[in-house]
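quick one
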Amino acid sequence: MSRVYNFSAGPAVLPEEVLQAAADEMMDYKGTGMSVMEMSHRSKPFEEIITEAEADLRDLMEIPDNYKVLFLQGGASQQFAAIPMNLMKNGVADYIITGQWAKKAAQEAEKYGKVNRIASSEDKVFSYIPDCSDLPIDDNADYVYICENNTIYGTKYKELPNTKGKILVADVSSCFLSEPVDVTKYGVIYGGVQKNIGPAGTVIVIIREDLIRDDVFPGTPTMLKYKTQADAKSLYNTPPAYGIYICGKVFKWLKKMGGLEAMKERNEKKAKLLYDFLDQSQLFKGTVVKEDRSLMNVPFVTGNEELDAKFVKEAKAAGLENLKGHRTVGGMRASIYNAMPYEGVEALVAFMKKFEEENL
Ligand code: PMP
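structure w/ 4'-deoxy-4'-aminopyridoxal-5'-phosphate:
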C-alpha cells in the first residue's frame, strides 16, 4: 500500500485508522453480515450509529441542549438556500463577503429576501478579514452571515463579528472541529463534512431550537425545512447513512486524540511550521495578511506562474498531492486539515526548501 500526503481542499485526507476500521467492517459490520452501506436506515445498528455520532459531536463541541444537530444531504451549497428560506422572518439578512463561498451564499439568499453586503474584502482579493467590530447591521436583519474559514483564500475570523445582538450564522465547512468553539455565540453553525470530518454528501447543521419554525418562506421544499428534519431526527427520508457512519468514526478519533483543544494545538503546530518557512523564504510568499491566516488552508505563490506549475508537478512526483491553488486564484494551496499528520507538513516544507535551492 502506498499513501500520498494529500493536501486537497476537499474532499480531503481522513485519518488512516478510520479508513482502516471502515475497511475492516466493510463486509460484516459488527456481526450483521452486511456493510453499513447495505443496511436499513431504520435498523437497530444504524440507529445506534447515528445516535452515537450525535452524542459524540455534542460532547466534542459542548453543544447545549437547546441546539439541534441535523445530518443532511445537499452539501454546504444547499444550505445557501435553506438558511434564508428558514430564517428570513423579516425578509432581510446581512452578509459579510470574505470569498467566493460567502458571495455565493449571498447571491442565493437574494432569491428569498433583501441581502445587505455589510462588509467585504474583495478589494484586496479576499486576502484579509474586514474589521467587524462596528458594522452597519440592519435593524431588521434576521441574521448576520459569515463564512468563518475561507477555503480558497486561506483566511479565518480570529474574532467573531459584533452582530449587535443579531443571530450569527456561520459556514464552518473548512474549519469544522479544528479548534474549540463557543456554540452559544451562534444561531446556526453548518458545514459540509468533506474537509475535516468525512466523505462528501453529508452536511451537518447545528441550529438553536427557537430558530426552527413552521412559517418558513412560502414554497420551501419539505426537505429543506429544518423543522421537517429536526422533528424526524434527520431520518425524514434516507439520510447519507454511510457518510454519517464515517463522521461518527472521525468523532471518536477526535475524542481519542484529546478533543478540540488538542486538535487546535496540533493544527497550530502544523500551520506554524509552514507559515514560518513562508515568512523567511526568498522564493515562496504567503498571500494572506498574518493576523487572518487560516490554520487549515495555506495559499502561497512564487510570483511566477510557470514556476508555480513546475512546483505542483514536481511535488506530485514526490508524493505531495493536490497542491494546486483554486482554479480562480492560481498559485498553490496546502490544505492541512485535522487528519494531515505533522510529518506531511514536514515533508512539504522539506520539499519546498529543496525546490527553492534549485530554482532561486
Ligand atoms: N463553503 C465552503 C467554505 C467551502 O469550502 C465549500 C466547498 N469547497 C462550500 C461551502 C461548498 O460546499 P459543497 O460542495 O458541499 O456544496
